[in-house]
Amino acid sequence: MKRQLLILLICFATVATAVAATFSASYPRAVAAGDKFRVAFKLENGEGSNFEAPEVEGATLIFGPATSSSYSMSIINGKQSSSSSMTYTMTYKASAQPGTISVGAAAVTCGGKRMTTRPFTISVTAGNPHGGNGGSSSQHSQQPPRVSIDDFDSQEADRGVSANDLFVRIEMSRPRVFEQQPVVCTIKLYTKYGISEFMVNKQPAFDGFLIEEIDGQPNLDNVETYNGQKYHVAVLKRCILYPQQSGQLKIASGEYDVTAVQFVSYRTMFGTMREPVEKRLHVTSNSATVNILPLPEPKPASFTGAVGKFSITSSLKPETLKTYSAATLSYVITGTGNIKYIKAPQVTLPEQFDAYEPITDVDAHVSGANVTGTCTAGYTFIPQFAGRFTIPESEFSYFDPDAERYVTIPIAERVLNVEQGKGQPSATGERGTRMDIAGLQSVSASQLSPEREPWWGSAGYWLWYVIPLALATAFAIYFRKQLRLRSDATLMRRLRAGKVASRRLKRATALAGQPDKLTEFYVELLQALWGFMSDKLSLPMSQLNRDNLEHELLSHGVDAQLATEALALIDECQLAQYSPAGAAAGQAAMLDRAAQVIEQINKVKIA
Predict the structure, then answer these.
(1) Which of 108, 338, 500, 568 is the most buried (most CB within 10 A)?
(2) Cα 85 to the center of its chain, rounded Å
(3) Using the 8-state DSSP alphabet, how is residue 156 labeled?
(4) Distance in angstroms (rounded) separating the CA atoms of residues 29 and 409
(5) Of 186, 148, 188, which Cα lies nearest the Cα of 168?
(6) Are the C-beta atoms of residues 103 and 8 closer than 8 Å to each other?
(7) Residue 148 DSSP class
(8) Which residues contact 93 (CB under 8 A, 6 or more apart)?
(9) Average pLDDT in the 448-456 region?
(10) How far is CA 518 from the centre of its chain?
(11) CA distance 402 to 309
């Protein structure tokens, strides 16, 4: 009995010392009409969840709830005590007319129980109230001040974000251009507010244009004045457009999701405080129209689409030409316009030269509202005979959009003196020897053939019938055999295994020697090896692995040493794939070993 009484006393003492949770509201007794104020709902000595904001009449919610928590512990005379609280703060704006604000009960869940506050009222006065703890003393006019990038007080959260405060605009460098004349398109974000998030939902459409984007990183560091107002400006996109057709071309608008940052201001004992409030907006840009003028007719025969202002020069390297040695005749076009889309000039080289397709190199950059640069066209050729040769004169034409006329630049005739070098003419060079007409030859009567009898009915006559029939029969037998082979997918796959592997090795060879392509090189090499094994052994890739590869090779008659070499090569390629830094020097050796392994295994006849 004494022990049970002691336990009961301890339980009662514990219950008596426990602090019950409380939920209360803190609010100003009176606020001025149109001012902002705060109401704090405080839960003490408990953990709350599922907060329910009260219903309010006579005021507008601006921001909230903002949640904060605190915890304190103290030891007095050896006794420890602690307390905790959670505060839910709501910011409201009073109505513009004097009256009363009715605030209903707020609720929160604590310890599985629903706790509520008592409803209360707040007086709204015409002037600045006395003794209020949350009202603002500023006077509000009927028309709010214009939003300014330098004034946070004008960026209040209780006002809407108008189309004049935040918008996306498409700007064109020219309203009117000719076909193929470049025009610069810039898409900008104008805002008087800070931006915390920006997302593109739909990019503007550029139908009827070739488009080339200019690299850039959007930021709001720039300030511009537009329509007499200052804005933070970010360039979202900048590109060069080349119109491909005449008429009025329209650039469709884009769509964007923008999160603007506004502020809630309120008075405290420490002065005016501001809290940032994010507002998500859906913004649609304007659309832009460009008038595209057609290129005038008639066009010069040498005009190939160049629009702008250009000049052209030529050079020959080396200046001293010798037979069987390569030389390059270069034409350099310099100027402003659609430099990236200029076609190489037409050059007629002598037939005694082995000529190659011209190689074009373009170096261009944006300069203001246009594109400036050079286009170099190189014509490589190899003279096959010594002598004096001529490249006939030609022309290069372009359209000048400023003068609205075509300009033709003559390209002078060029005389080439070719000296005799070491070597022999190529097969294509023999055409030069066939340019002279051979002299007439005289023959005697004994060299003439007598008149022959008709050959119909002879053995040769009948052979004309027998031989085509025999050839048709042979072709029929051959095609039937090919059809049977092609119908056997497994056999065809095995027969083509070597060719498929060779193509994959060529792709790996193209990647060899490139430091930034080491991983791709070994991936391509592994695909060549595994693909060949799969085709040759008639096994799906899903069933082929290192554990059964050796067994399959040996069971199909492959030499044990060759099978070991194939497995070792695959292991080395897999290791190099994941540590390519140390495998750069062995690429050529890897290719040779892979080619030898594939060639030797391919020679093995597999039933």
Answers:
(1) 338
(2) 50
(3) B
(4) 88
(5) 188
(6) no
(7) B
(8) 34, 35, 36, 37, 59, 60, 62, 158
(9) 63
(10) 23
(11) 9
Nearest to residue 375, comparing CAs of 329, 436, 425, 313? 313
Q: Based on the number of CB atoms within 10 Å of its own CB, is 404 exposed (0-12), middle (13-18) or buried (19 or more)? A: exposed
- What size, in residues, is the chain? 607
β-pairing, 321-322 with 414-419? parallel
pLDDT tens track for 341-392: 888 788 888 988 888 888 889 988 877 767 889 999 999 999 988 899 999 9
Structure tokens belonging to residue 476: 């029929």
Q: What's the start-to-end Cα distance of the chain, in Å?
A: 97
Q: Left if phi > 0, otherwise alpha if psi is -120 to 50, otherwise beta: which for 65?
A: beta
Provide the residue type at 95 as one letter: S
Which two three-digit tokens encode residue 136?
């603002």
Long-range contacts at 86-89 (CB < 8 A, ≥ 24 apart): 86/42, 86/43, 86/46, 86/47, 86/48, 87/40, 87/41, 87/42, 87/43, 88/40, 88/41, 88/42, 88/43, 88/51, 88/53, 88/64, 89/38, 89/39, 89/40, 89/41, 89/64, 89/65
542-596 per-position pLDDT tens digit: 777 877 888 888 887 888 888 888 888 888 887 877 765 555 667 888 888 888 8
Contact between 530 and 544 (Cβ < 8 Å): yes
Q: For the whole model, what pTM was predicted?
A: 0.49
Q: Which residue has the tokens 């020679």?
A: 603
